[in-house]
Amino acid sequence: MKSVTALSVAPEIYPLIKTGGLADVAGALPGALAAEHVALRTLCPGYRPVLAALKKAEAVAHFDDLFGGPARLLAARAAGLDLFALDAPHLYDRDGGPYGGHDGRDFPDNALRFAALAKVGALLGQGLVEGFAPQVVHAHDWQAGLTAAYLHYSGKPRPGAVMTAHNLAFQGQFPAEIFGALGLPPQAFSIEGVEYYGGVGFLKAGLQLSDRITTVSPTYAQEIQQGHSGMGLDGLLRARAEQLAGVLNGIDVEVWNPETDPMIVAPFTRKKIAARAENKKALQARMGLAHAPDRLLVGVVSRLSWQKGLDLLLACLPFFEEHNAQLVLLGTGDPALEAAFQEAAQLHPGRIGVHFSYDERLAHLIQAGADAILIPSRFEPCGLTQLCAMRYGAVPVAARVGGLADTIIDANEMALQAKCATGLQFAPVTAEALAGALRRCAALHARKTAWKNIQFNGLKTDVSWTNPARHYAEIYREVAPA
């Protein structure tokens, strides 16, 4: 098997900096690909948390003026990852998150911040650092989308380029006026290059100019070639359908392991699933719910947004009273949704508990203690929540879209008879269909043997990176220059 050296260009990477599933993917792929004889190093921005995690870093390149200020490229190892960190204080040393301030607004210079990341990614791909010559550069989401453009218009031999779109809803669109600051040649501002509806499209550039395109599930790869899900890029994706593949995400089964997880109260296995009840008890206590071992406890771990369909759940809150069920919700996002769920919790003390923040420990406890995990997304490229749920014996109840459709076997009567169901799905994505799915969930929860079979099926499902890594390695070998 041919070995491959590759560079990943990612705007976030777990466990150093995370806002969503992209970070989990970027953090898990290097280890998973090692088994496929792929050596993958990752370039990420030098945010404060990233630099703080680097114990021993070597400056391997310097830039006198990188989009408005001096910068240096650091090589280091942290959290088991081989990293390049772009230390550019004028771009990344600031309060807030990776993409915006505490006020929730994007940083006004995001175009330059992530053009810098892409530019250095391209330079690394073409031999910037002695002794590192990647055959493949793998760019993640719009923030790394210009990497392929810098490679394409360099006029020099280049490595193979792979672009992964984790969520087509975030495209990195900027006005045409920014083009002059990007350092690209004039011909790049065309429909065959970075031009997108009269402006500059970072994601569009990556999709247009990379050798291969991947997204994070086969169903999502088909959905985004259609007008209602393509978000303006469906024509381009149809034109490049031969270069487009859907590769399901996995999860890190060492981090998400109910047998050894230090973040839960009571570790458990499939053979000792009864111990799971202690986590439910602890979760109820943590979220201010009544201790009720036999009540259906539904968990939500999600960004609060229209995409995630949490407004539909608000319309279904009467279900929890009618079926004597409980709800716990962990997430942050839309202030209006936060306010509505806070009001619901106040109106239903002991039945509904909410926590508005990012809390990894509580997320693990919800997966380990809830009976079911609800994912009513209007669209979902892949989703990791349902994979974690199955790994922890929580039954996913999810919309039949994107990666949710690819990863859950619905508990219809034939699947129950064949004992192969791993969760419940519903469609269309409406409040009425969600209410029906919750009623199905309550009825199944009352059928103890059937419910336990669904739990066991989830617990034994391979949700690791083993198969996805094999697919990525195949793609890398296809695009790597001879």
From TrEMBL:
Residues reported in the UniProt entry to bind ADP-alpha-D-glucose: K18
SUPFAM superfamilies noted in UniProt: UDP-Glycosyltransferase/glycogen phosphorylase
Annotated ranges, domain Starch synthase catalytic: 7-238
Substrates-to-products reaction catalysed: [(1->4)-alpha-D-glucosyl](n) + ADP-alpha-D-glucose = [(1->4)-alpha-D-glucosyl](n+1) + ADP + H(+)
One MF annotation (Gene Ontology) recorded for this entry: alpha-1,4-glucan glucosyltransferase (ADP-glucose donor) activity
Highest taxon above the source species: Bacteria
CDD domains: GT5_Glycogen_synthase_DULL1-like
Catalytic EC class: transferase
Xref: Pfam families: Glyco_transf_5, Glycos_transf_1
Keywords associated with the record: Glycogen biosynthesis, Glycosyltransferase, Transferase
InterPro entries named in the record: Glyco_trans_1, GS/SS, Starch_synth_cat_dom
Record family assignment: Belongs to the glycosyltransferase 1 family. Bacterial/plant glycogen synthase subfamily.
Protein's name in the database: Glycogen synthase
Biological source species: Candidatus Rhodoblastus alkanivorans
Gene from which the chain derives: glgA
